[in-house]
């Protein structure tokens, strides 16, 4: 006959499983199962209750919320004659019910437990209450409970609940925008938990630090923290799903809605499977915001309404206004502005503020003010702006950016344009602070969009937008960007300087071109992660020599160009941006079909090129003459094959990300007397080998010597390397001119995944970011290698952009498909002209004109001439 352990031993064994659940939930579960079996056999209800509680705590750690609630129900039932044990089970049930979507029910359970607890358990109950209170938006009450719990548990020998109190208080402080307090609490929680061996609890605290960083606006820190948390939470599906949903919030803050949606698609099924209805409703709200950011207001509205219903059903009335805000913003994107709609916006902003959502309230009040200006309701605008700008400096970066924007609008309403620009500049600095720590230029380019509305407002003032002409008075000259005379102060042109004001397209605009250029360049520099002074126009004019710089800007659907030459600087309207973008698509389509030799498409592409040239270059004809051109595109014009436009055929030109970026190339590396030239032939192209051999032969012949390598030699060193990735990367770091003849692929959804095909795999734009040195001239004889996507002006992403970011001065690349044999023909003449002393841009222009092979362009600069051979 088996000897059963004494009842006290069973209770102690079950209690050990409870203690173990925080450090090793897997072992705790196995131990509790064994104890439960023995306790049921022994008829010991107290041990049964405690064992079920241990199983519930382990289940909760693994994200099995419904199972945890079931075990705790059994624990309460087993302890029906043991009030304190039943109360302990209810204590544990509080957080489970809160996460299952019933925070109000959780508080009722806490009330049932409260009178039956002794010792440290009342403090522990306060820790659990805080979870439900935070879910309900009652964060100050949550902090008060945690304060009492920390005081009661410190030094009491219960590190698990002490760490839990610090964790919950840190989360509550985050929602209260007390970010320094939140970081202190979470760091203290992690330290306390690790010291006690509670690794999982420490991990949860550390996974919440990036959540604080996101709310604070420190996106680089948030990204780093979430990447670390992804690995440490891999064994806990519900916790991992909740973390992924939080990470989606960081991606949304960085204006990466596609990536946020992908994470939410991973998180939502796991949250639903675990019954984490609270986190599920919050994820739904995030998804609505994603839909709004990607431009689908109808879907955003529907998802926001669903989230609002779920939040209301959970008794989370404080959260419902957040969902209502997203739904209302979706309506603003669909409906025409009316006084009734303005009243709704103002009312909801007040409701958000009353519920403690100060940042979202400020953002919606700014929207209300802008809507009021549009409806000519100046009193309402000033009232809402006053509410945004009043009070202390906000803790969250997004809130601070909104305040700077509100200050700018408030000052402009008073006619203080210099003050408005000062606030806008401060807001842009705030919006982009720390972005230089984002190593991925794609993420950085998207993250800078947090300041896009500020930049747009500044441009509207610089252009003398007619919507700002309700503002009387001009500002003093000391706020001018650039080096123009006093009258170049930003935005001090008369009303008729507004773009699209119906005057003839060829008439100069009255907005100050130096000011427009200065503002546009300031924004482009921030987009590249290299903020600094905009270029002085005088310095630009001196550097241009006989060339012309054409910088395009857009505001709404209105397109304009600032044209800078050695003689002066003018601003010209170019009509509709949408029309120009659509014409660019038609031209590219025609060129692609022509590249495939479709019947009749060459003439169609030629007609489209003539029409687009008339739209974009006709108004500039008298300004640009026949000069070499530096073009700084905006938006979709980054994809335009500029050399095919008839006025540019046979003309040296380049496409640059900004005037500043081009100017930097004029002070770059000197011309190399004996350049090292390397050619590569990629796989799958019939003439690639012949093209690479031609490059070596042409440059070899320029020095009249056999190819050799020698330090200090003035002879050209021309060679060919294999098309293996390692060989190509090594050659990129050692050559001055690199020519790659290969298949090219542009990835529109992820431009840094654009690639050149090599023998053992692709050379991607991402690979280039790891290079410490790149050649001064790179020739990519590949289809679409010059294509780019620019999330914001100043940051075109793609292969050419990656080379330029790493220090290459000039990239020659294809913008449309070109046949293999035609590429060989073009490049043969291009390199012959290059070795004869032409600049890359001049050589490419002449070669394209003579061979009739279109589709290639220079990027970054016009390039430097090679030193021609002596003799």
Structural description of this entry:
By secondary structure, the protein is an alpha/beta fold. Among the domains are: 346-488, no CATH class; 504-658, 2-Layer Sandwich (Nucleotidyltransferase, domain 5), CATH 3.30.420; 668-859, Rossmann fold (3-Layer(aba) Sandwich), CATH 3.40.50.1460. Helices cover 58% and strands 8% of the residues. The chain is built from 36 helices and 14 strands. The strands form two sheets. The chain has an eleven-stranded mixed beta sheet, sandwiched between helices. It is elongated.
Sheet-strand content, in percent, reads: 5-15%
Radius of gyration: 33 Å
Q: What is the CATH architecture assignment of the domain at 668-859?
A: 3-Layer(aba) Sandwich
Largest sheet: 11 strands, mixed
Count of alpha and pi helical runs: 36
Q: How many extended strands?
A: 14
CATH topology of the domain at 668-859: Rossmann fold
Please estimate the helix content. 55-70%
What class do helices, strands and sheet pairing give? alpha/beta
Shape: elongated
- Rounded to the nearest angstrom, the distance between the terminal CA atoms is 111 Å
Multimeric state: single chain
